Write the structure tokens for this entry.
Amino acid sequence: MLRYESVGMRYADGTMALDSVSLRVPRGQFCVILGASGAGKSTLLRMANGLTTPTQGQVWVDDTEVRPSTLAAVRPRIGMVHQHFTLAPNLTVLENIITGTESLWKLKSAHGPARTKIAAIAKRFGLQVDPDARLGDLSVGEQQRVEILKALYNDADILILDEPTAVLTTQEAENLFATLKEMARQGLSLIFISHKLHEVMSAADRVIVLRGGKLVAERKASETSKEELAELMVGRRVSRPSRAASTPGETLLEARNATVVEDGATRLSDLDFHVRAGETLGIIGVSGNGQAALGRLVSGLSQPTSGELVMFGQTVTKFDPRQFVAQ
């Protein structure tokens, strides 16, 4: 069981990141921590393995208080799966999992026992992946399985996931939730940070809502709604935005077969789009699929290796952020 007792976190500048938060996450429970950006979610979870030390209160893993003298015993029990993976793409799955668990001099001799243990964990939780595959050749969903396997390889019984679906497709996210539910059924404690209400409602047993560093509500997922959770997150009634019909004007920005290559990798390929006056263009996609490169292109930080960018009817020939801002 992971237990927080009146924990608080005040930074040197006086900012109160957490204010007297108390909660328990028992074995076999899938608990979601919900809150707007800056609510204190990540600070709370970083306290679990000593990455952040509370300025008041205590954090406990069963009967062991989390403090500097107990970190060696506590940290293997807590697996952290981050939104952005902490794996080496040039190593194999097996090498990624055992790196940091054995002496460098024993890594080769550890491969046999490690392979057996990984196979057992993969079978138990449905996390099948080829241990000899190079990590960089795997899909994003497969790489995330490796992150989870690495945490479980250290015998973690508490798994903390920080917005793990941000980099996944819808199908990969559904597969992840099926795996996590099986883990909870087998007795692991799962803590999941999210701001996607549909995920919370479909996956969680229990929902903790933080707002402004305070725990403002606890709900069983089966006894709440997306509407209630949204109101609890922001502290007021949330109504859906409405927009009156409008007629867009002339085209102000246009990409024509734009390809962007950065550091030898193709970030955008034959991209076409246009934005007209009075129009809002939405860009969607799983993280890592060119959104950042597109932002650099339209702000003048990158330029196309082929194709063109047209702004206010003129083909852009000089990619200068200052000039883009001036326009």
